[in-house]
Structure formats: structure tokens, C-alpha cells
Amino acid sequence: MTSSANSVQNKIHILLVANNPIFVFITTRVVQQHDQLAIIGSVSRDEAIQVEQSLRPEVILLDLDASGQSNVEAISILRSVMPKVGLIVLSMLDIASFRQAALQAGADEFVLKSALNTDLLPAILRVARAARPGQEPPIESNQEEKP
Questions:
Q1: Contact yes or no for 20/64 (Cβ under 8 A)
Q2: pLDDT confidence of residue 107
Q3: What pLDDT is recorded for position 47?
Q4: What angle is formed at CA 42 by the lines to CA 55 and CA 118, rounded to 5 degrees?
Q5: pLDDT of residue 145
Q6: For the chain, which residues make up each domain, given as ranges?
Q7: At what angle do helices 70-81 and 45-55 cross, to 10 degrees?
Q8: Distances in Å between the alpha carbon of 97 and those of 17, 68, 69, 74, 100?
């Protein structure tokens, strides 16, 4: 039991905030490919603020849909409640003004859903470094260290 607790403890703890169960499934599968990452929960936007204090994520993956202005408000609210947690916005909208609005509202990174396989891990590692000052998260995934 101690070894599994230690292995989870050394991982980057990620909270998924999404209202779409299919997106949660897909994103979970992408994240689970990387040994140094652990999804510690999946909640709707409405639940995120209440759950954060008990789960203590280092990184939040926030799914933004095309529903409009409430997306920017969600970013601002999460950032004000969780100023030290890395916040990565995931979106299908590849519009410069949308990306800029998300970053200005407090997102640390903006990742297109079409690029989850290539861009998500580097974004998580960048925001985790900021969330863990003095600790360097592992860089490579799913590769065994050679003696």
C-alpha cells in the first residue's frame, strides 16, 4: 500500500473539468498514456470550485465548449479561487481572439483538442513546473530508465 501511495504522490495530479463525458473519456485515455500523470477526478464546471479544496490538483484541464462568454467567466472564477493551480484550457476553437481571451482570463496554456496527443503533455509539464517550484517533473513518458 505504501508503494502505490508513493507512486501516486510523485505524480502530477490533474483534475478534469468538463461537462461532456465523451471528452472526459478521450482526455483520460490520452493522460493515462503518461506514467508521471494521475487524473484525480473529473467534475463539471459547477462542481470544480467545491471539489478543488479536497482533491488539491496541481493542474486543471478545463474543457471549453462553443457555448460562449461563460467560458471566459469560468476561467476567471477558477483562477481567482485557485491562483497556484496550473490551468490548461482545451478547446476545439482555433480562433486567435478566443485563445487570447482565455489567456487574459487566467489560463496558463491553451491546447487545441485536435492536438491533444502532441501538445497536452508538454503543456501539463510546463504548468506543473510552475506549480512545483524547485521540483522538476519527469520529462519523458512511458520510457523505462536504463541503468
A1: no
A2: 95
A3: 81
A4: 110
A5: 39
A6: 2-131
A7: 10
A8: 22, 12, 12, 17, 5
Measured in residues, the chain has a length of 147
Q: Given this model, what pLDDT does residue 139 score?
A: 46
**Positions in the chain short of pLDDT 70:** 1-9, 52-53, 66-70, 131-147
Helix and strand counts by DSSP (H, E) for the chain: 6, 5
CA distance linking residue 144 with residue 84, whole number of Å: 31
CATH value of 2-131 in 3.40.50.2300, 3.40.800.20, 3.90.1150.10, 3.40.630.30: 3.40.50.2300
Grid coordinates given for 134: 524547485
Q: How far apart are the first and last CA of the chain?
A: 26
In the sheet with 109-112, reading across from the earlier edge strand, the strands are 37-43, 12-17, 59-64, 86-91, 109-112
Beta strands in the chain (DSSP E): 12-17, 37-43, 59-64, 86-91, 109-112
pLDDT per residue over 108-143, tens digit each?
A: 999 999 999 999 999 999 999 876 555 554 444 444
Contact 89, 97 (CB under 8 A): no
